Amino acid sequence: MLNPTADNTLGRYLLFLGDTVEPGYAKTAFGLRDWAGERCVGELALPAATVSTGLTPMTARQAHDLGATALVIGVAAPGGMIPEAWVPALLEALEAGLDLVSGMHVKLAQLPPLREAAGRLGRRLIDIRTPPADIPVASGVKRPGRRLLTVGTDCALGKKYTALALTRALRARGVAVDFRASGQTGILIAGGGMPIDAVVADFVAGAAEMLSPAAAPDHLDVIEGQGSLFHPAYAGVSLGLLHGSQPDLFVVCHDPGRSHILGFPAKPLPTIEAVIAQTVALGRVTNPDIACAGVALNTSAMTPEAAQAEIDALSQRLGLPVADPIRGGAAFERLLDACLANQEQA
């Protein structure tokens, strides 16, 4: 699996926000701020950007002087491309002494100005979204160990945060648990993982098997989900990850304030009930015992009172534990209890 730590790519970061105006497209920047904040020196945005992580704005030179070793592209452009308007700022970062780290589909070295400057200056162009070359076709054979997968009603609404929060909380309870990163942000946070959406389609399930290998019977892997089974563009990635990870449990992640698929205003968000039913039906292909442990809500845009009311109403409606993992509290403890109860029943 990809291991940035082995290549010393994990240093101190300047987060690049480009000209982004949609917070949902800046999830890499926000994820690094929230889960690897000690490595984030500041942020750099172009004048047209309206999104901010709240970190100190600074130039590449200032970041370098404060100990930054790399500029990380913290936003996603449509199609995973690097817009031409970003190139001058990326060149300035190279000139200032920073390596470039990208999770975009296009490789940094494919842009001649960046390739030439990096070669001339002795800087590194590091592409996180590069899967290993030896991924096998999935076996479909059930392997030892326990697995929990976060799934979603949509993209960019909390699957990574939920997986990280569950891992941290379960570890605090003494559970043998590991977070398994399946996207560029998670890989940067964890120091390793599998960029699942960069894998050739025939090998996605096999890559998921590699991501979460056989383990001791009492060991739990919490696997970061990708996309949504209902997403018109990314459902194929979600399905391959579901089949290959063979989860015993899954947690549905949902944003109560979202009405449609991000970037697809004509596509209404599926219900949580529909996501549970679809995940169970498709997940049984590789794990007949798959079960929903509960629901994780992203209530970051709600008041504490409104969030609690939403959590209580949804839990009553579904008959399942519902919580916002970032808010924590008694509701989150009940979700953790459900994860452990399911584990103990195995």
UniProtKB/TrEMBL annotation:
Residues 137-330 form the D-glutamate N-acetyltransferase-like C-terminal domain. Signal peptide: none annotated. Gene3D superfamilies: NAD(P)-binding Rossmann-like Domain (3.40.50.720), P-loop containing nucleotide triphosphate hydrolases (3.40.50.300). InterPro entries: DgcN-like, DgcN-like_C, DgcN-like_N, P-loop_NTPase. Pfam families: DUF1611, DUF1611_N. Residues 61-131 form the D-glutamate N-acetyltransferase-like N-terminal domain. This is DUF1611 domain-containing protein.
